[in-house]
Design brief:
With about 450 residues, the protein is an alpha/beta fold. About 35% of the residues lie in helices and about 15% in strands. β7, α3 (about 120-135) and β8 form a beta-alpha-beta unit.
């Protein structure tokens, strides 16, 4: 709420009975004039001070990472920079209901599997988590498929050490299985054991959202939904959702929940970016309107997998793994097999061949990003956030600076007006559309 200042002015109207000619003192009116909020002033001064610090970064001053961790205020233009704890949320960050549930999530969340990668120390991971919390992010997504059990263990230590209120953050973790893992399928036994193990590793009394990673065609859907209802009834889990499920499978789970009076899923986690759009833009809005399943999205660029590498975006987006509209290159049977970089599962799926047209699209998108004064990664994040169906977009970061740069994409969303979106659509030429209805009478 903006603050108000009192201002005085005197009415010198000669026709007024309270003028000086009548011998009475002039009437003093008091009005309330709005002034800038202190939070806005701190953000503005922090931004100007950040520029000043960047200019002299080569003179042995405070590093950019130290600045982002501590927050920055500047009392006067010529005054020395002073460090202070940043408590205001990032500009543009909003909170929305996840699906049609009452759970309020920030429109950007932190996907922690790059954060707890093999090349990131626990101290660096804690700095990233702290920056996310102080920026207003309240969603932390974990995935055993990508970072193993280390992510849950280290996040649990950080949350316990920091002592944040349990009501101020939301933890989502996945029940993962594959045909090559010890736990096979989504049996009641596997689901309950996985939830209990995650609670121990996270050092939490409950998990906010448990996401079932991949549907199991060999397990009856009734057993899956009854098991999820059981862990929720025990108070171990608050909500549950799905990841990499087709719309038909999500609808089947919802139908079984209604039939057996079980808690329904509230979210589907899927891949979404400029070159993977059909499921998110055509089918997820329908699921939300019909059964209340929300959307938590992520993309390779938002997870930071292409930052700092020339032409990495071209190589990443030019693969042939998008032939299946429901498939995602990120989840394979060999996800837990990693090399020293931690992304062996991804490198094997990247196609070395690229078409000339695909390369031109990336270059044209780079030109659009330059016009807006941002990077391609920031443009891609802002483009995803422009879709109202995306209730939470997961960002990934292995450094504090990388997360800070991704958060700045929130300020780019208002700049993507109708003309800018039309320009991007002209470059992409892949706007999804439903196939025309075919009448069986016309085939006779």
């Amino acid at each position: 709420m903006s603050q108000l200042a009192l201002c005085n002015y005197t009415n010198n109207n000669n026709n007024d009975n309270t003028s000086e000619d009548s011998g009475q003192p002039p009437t003093i009116y008091r009005c309330r004039a709005p002034i800038a909020s202190l939070d806005c002033m701190e953000e503005f001064s922090a931004g100007s001070a950040l520029s000043a610090l960047t200019d002299r970064s080569g003179e042995g001053g405070i590093t950019k990472e130290q600045l982002l961790l501590s927050g920055l205020t500047q009392s006067a233009p010529n005054a020395a920079l002073q460090l202070a704890k940043q408590t205001s949320t990032a500009p543009g960050l909003r909170y929305r209901n996840l699906g049609k549930s009452g759970l309020r999530v920030s429109n950007i969340g932190l996907g922690t599997w790059p954060t707890f990668g093999p090349n990131v120390t626990e101290e660096q991971a804690e700095q990233i988590i702290v920056l996310a919390v102080e920026s207003g992010i309240n969603v932390f997504d974990l995935s055993e498929a990508h970072s193993g059990t280390r992510a849950e263990v280290e996040l649990g230590r950080i949350l316990s050490r920091r002592g944040w209120k349990r009501t101020c953050y939301i933890v989502t973790t996945k029940i993962y299985w594959s045909t090559r893992s010890e736990e096979r399928g989504l049996s009641r036994k596997h689901i309950i054991e996985s939830v209990k193990a995650s609670l121990v590793r996270l050092q939490l009394s409950y998990i906010d959202v448990v996401i079932v990673h991949k549907a199991d065609p060999m397990c009856p859907m009734e057993e899956v939904v009854r098991a999820m209802h059981y862990v929720i009834s025990q108070g171990w889990v608050m909500y549950w959702g799905t990841a990499r499920w087709s719309p038909v499978e999500v609808m089947e789970a919802y139908t079984n929940c209604r039939q057996f009076n079980c808690v329904t899923p509230i979210v589907e986690q899927t891949e979404y970016h400029m070159f993977c759009r059909e499921k998110t833009e055509l089918y997820m809005p329908e699921l939300y309107n019909k059964i209340g399943v929300g959307l938590m999205a992520w993309s390779p660029i938002s997870m930071g997998l292409t930052q700092g590498k020339e032409d990495a975006s071209v190589q990443l987006f030019s693969r042939a793994s998008f032939r299946n509209k429901y498939s995602s290159f990120s989840w394979t049977e060999d996800e837990t097999t990693t090399n020293k970089d931690g992304y062996n599962w991804m490198k094997e799926r990247i196609q070395p061949e690229e078409t000339r047209r695909q390369s031109e699209r990336i270059r044209e998108l780079n030109s659009v990003a330059e016009k807006l004064g941002c990077t391609l990664s920031q443009l891609a994040i802002a483009w995803c956030l422009k879709n109202e169906s995306v209730q939470c977009l997961l960002l990934g970061a292995s450094t504090v600076v990388q997360l800070y740069d991704s958060i700045q994409s929130l300020q780019l969303v208002p700049k993507l007006n109708t003309n800018m979106i039309a320009e991007i659509e002209r470059i992409l030429e892949n706007k999804p559309s439903r196939p025309p209805m075919v009448s069986t009478l016309a085939l006779r």
